[in-house]
């Protein structure tokens, strides 16, 4: 009975990691907005997700050479603010809830700072109805007034963090990417370490994304839930057996961490498992 109870605790601990957690962004400067902030005038309010739009360009390898996209064909995609893609079609369009009617402050978002992202190595395979991605990295970047941002002129970009794709599910018109957050940026913006700008709710308090990983030994997880236009096949190269595709997307980015109680349950479960193993040996 004790072994069964221990296994149940471990299962519950892992099952509790999928809920979205609120975040706020600390810019180190008061760019305006309203008084509904998370941790003072230099921060946004608590936000549930980031809304984004982007364009993508992909190369599909026609593995069997039948000149149709079929099961087993592989895809490599790039997108976001990369190459010749325009910033106004590849950026975070909003943070929700918005600050309208007293909602959580945006602290001058888009007027004084902007978030964007890029990727060049998302890779997957066609399963007969859609491409299922299994790997790749999305880099998230900041353009800020302290780095020369004036709206029309982006100024210098600041690397914030990377999200590594480890899972992907798809239904018609909707895709969901999941994975981990890491590779936090270095340097300072308005006196704030770049790695401390994004903060996530953790129990009754909050931690920066980097602090969470350092404190718990676990990475912050993310989900990108997106709607996708049907990609346009723009060409086929018979010599290389490759299709080229273009697509447009709108999506929402959320972050998830296990709650402190979940981690405590996990710890108890693992301790119990270790004790049972020692007694058995």
TrEMBL record:
The keyword Signal is annotated on this UniProt entry: yes
One Pfam family it belongs to: PEP-CTERM
Keyword Signal in record: yes
Domain Ice-binding protein C-terminal as annotated: residue spans: 256-279
Protein name (record): PEP-CTERM sorting domain-containing protein
Taxonomy, superkingdom: Bacteria
InterPro entries: Ice-binding_C
Keywords, in A-Z order: Signal
Signal peptide stretch: 1-20
Organism: Cognaticolwellia beringensis
């Amino acid at each position: 009975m004790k072994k069964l109870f221990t296994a149940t605790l471990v299962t519950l601990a892992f099952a509790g990691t999928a809920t979205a957690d609120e975040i706020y962004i600390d810019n180190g400067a008061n760019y305006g907005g309203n008084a509904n902030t998370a941790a003072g005038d230099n921060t946004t309010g608590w936000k549930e997700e980031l809304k984004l739009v982007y364009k993508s360009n992909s190369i599909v390898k026609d593995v069997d050479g039948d000149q149709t996209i079929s099961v087993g064909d592989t895809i490599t995609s790039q997108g976001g603010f990369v190459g010749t893609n325009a910033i106004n079609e590849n950026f975070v369009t909003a943070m929700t809830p918005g600050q309208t009617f007293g909602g959580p402050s945006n602290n001058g978002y888009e007027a004084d700072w902007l978030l964007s992202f890029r990727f060049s190595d998302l890779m997957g395979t066609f399963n007969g109805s859609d491409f299922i991605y299994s790997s790749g990295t999305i880099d998230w970047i900041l353009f800020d007034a302290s780095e020369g941002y004036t709206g029309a002129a982006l100024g210098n970009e600041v690397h914030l963090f990377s999200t590594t794709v480890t899972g992907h599910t798809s239904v018609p018109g909707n895709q969901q990417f999941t994975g981990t957050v890491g590779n936090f940026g270095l340097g300072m913006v308005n006196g704030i370490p770049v790695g401390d700008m994004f903060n996530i709710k953790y129990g009754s308090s909050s931690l920066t994304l980097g602090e969470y990983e350092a404190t718990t030994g676990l990475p912050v997880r993310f989900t990108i839930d997106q709607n996708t236009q049907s990609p346009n096949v723009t060409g086929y190269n018979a010599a290389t057996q490759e299709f080229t595709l273009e697509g447009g997307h709108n999506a929402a980015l959320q972050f998830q961490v296990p709650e402190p109680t979940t981690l405590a349950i996990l710890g108890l479960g693992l301790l119990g498992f270790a004790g049972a193993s020692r007694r058995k040996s």
